[in-house]
Design brief:
This protein is an alpha/beta fold and about 180 residues long. The protein is built from seven helices and ten strands.
Length: about 180
């Protein structure tokens, strides 16, 4: 697991526009500061992915993602909140402050409050939500270990040590507006 020193170093790199790779709930992810357009461009070039697809944001707690969403009312929002922290990604209406490079061509934003210790600790060290996308080139299998990250997704400024969670595949994505599963 990453040490406090490694987490502080990674957070510093993120604040300077760096890209970090780390193990998440099921696979290795790469991420950056969601408000840094230069970092986003680097990440999308690394993944060979168009900006129009949008990106997932992950936070250590609800407060870290609140600025990016328009919360729903009632049962729909309660279902989201009841699933967090945990391996559940939800599409919620995007706040007007959410950059288009995060939402892509959608009025929704994909967000998760993670229970994975390293993801949580990295977001806390950074002080906010992070972009969290699979460590792979677009349309290729996601990396399952650090060696695969280095081979198939080179360009990260740092890799944090740790282990993935127990999920057999990336977190499911559901639309909070209607509960439909987008990615099982």
């Amino acid at each position: 697991m990453a040490s406090p020193f490694q987490l502080r170093q990674a957070a510093g790199l993120l604040r300077k526009g760096g890209i970090i790779a780390w193990p998440t709930e099921a696979i290795w992810g790469v991420g950056c500061d969601p408000l840094n357009p230069h970092a986003i461009r680097r990440l999308m070039d690394l993944k060979q992915r168009p900006l129009s697809k949008g990106l997932i944001l992950t936070g250590a707690n609800y407060e870290q993602i609140l600025t990016y969403i328009h919360p729903l009312s009632g049962e729909r929002m309660q279902a989201v909140l009841d699933s967090w922290p945990g391996p559940h990604t939800w599409l919620l209406p995007a706040s007007p402050r959410t950059p288009v490079w995060i939402t892509g061509a959608s009025p929704l934003v994909a967000v998760r409050v993670s229970a994975h210790p390293l993801t949580r600790d990295l977001c806390l060290a950074f002080g906010g939500a992070l972009v969290s996308t699979s460590a792979n080139r677009s349309s290729h299998p996601p990396a399952r270990n650090a060696l695969q990250v280095r081979l198939h997704c080179p360009g990260a400024d740092a890799l944090l040590p740790g282990t993935t969670g127990e999920l057999p595949r990336p977190t499911p994505i559901r639309n909070a507006l209607d509960g439909k599963v987008i990615r099982p």
